[in-house]
Write a structure and sequence with these properties.
Layout lengths: L2 E3 L2 E5 L5 H10 L1 H4 L4 H5 L4 H16 L4 E7 L5 E11 L4 E8 L8 H15 L5 E6 L4 H9 L3 E10 L7 E9 L2
Parallel strand pairs: 5-6
Antiparallel strand pairs: 1-2, 2-3, 3-4, 4-5, 6-8, 7-8
Length: 178
């Protein structure tokens, strides 16, 4: 386990997580389809989810991508997923991406998880710059960045193209190791 807070815990993804990830994705299709289409399409059934988890466990071991689960400690219900991706070990930089199930929204859980994982990324992974890239209309995600003192850097013109949509300008926020 990486950390615990207020009855929730953050863990690296492991082979036993496939069913829970599948359930989370299927229950939140409408919520995840715009900003998490790749994760969603890889978790639409248990077989796909097991392949997804196997790949993410290997990526974690190889330090290519770190995927964490956010679970309720008592019920073991999966609340969300948090990636540290786009790792540049030369720059000691990584980017957060995260999704939260609708039943857990409105509790500032992701803000607390990002605070915890930021400290972990600086102290244990050796990263020095953490990024969050978000669309300005995704107010919940903008708030996660702001609550955790990520500073707005610039607008990334046509920085992301959601499925079946035109490219969107995205906002880049960064947090630096103090």
């Amino acid at each position: 386990m990486i950390a615990q807070f207020e009855g929730f815990e953050i863990n690296p993804v492991h082979n036993g997580d496939a069913w829970k990830i599948c359930d989370l994705c299927v229950a939140n299709i409408d919520r995840f389809k715009r900003y998490f289409p790749k994760t969603l399409e890889q978790n639409l059934n248990p077989t796909l989810s097991q392949l997804f988890v196997d790949n993410k466990v290997k990526a974690y071991e190889n330090k290519d991508v770190f995927l964490y689960t956010l679970k309720h400690s008592e019920s073991r219900k999966l609340a969300g997923l948090i990636y540290i991706k786009e790792l540049d070990w030369g720059k000691k930089q990584g980017e957060f991406a995260y999704c939260l199930g609708y039943t857990f929204s409105g509790k500032k859980l992701m803000a607390k998880a990002i605070k915890t994982l930021s400290k972990y990324a600086f102290e244990s992974l050796g990263l020095e710059v953490l990024q969050i890239i978000v669309h300005k209309d995704n107010i919940s995600s903008v708030n996660v960045a702001k609550i955790n003192n990520f500073e707005w850097q610039r607008t990334l013109k046509k920085g992301y193209t959601p499925p079946n949509e035109s490219p969107l300008d995205m906002e880049l926020y960064e947090l630096y190791k103090s």
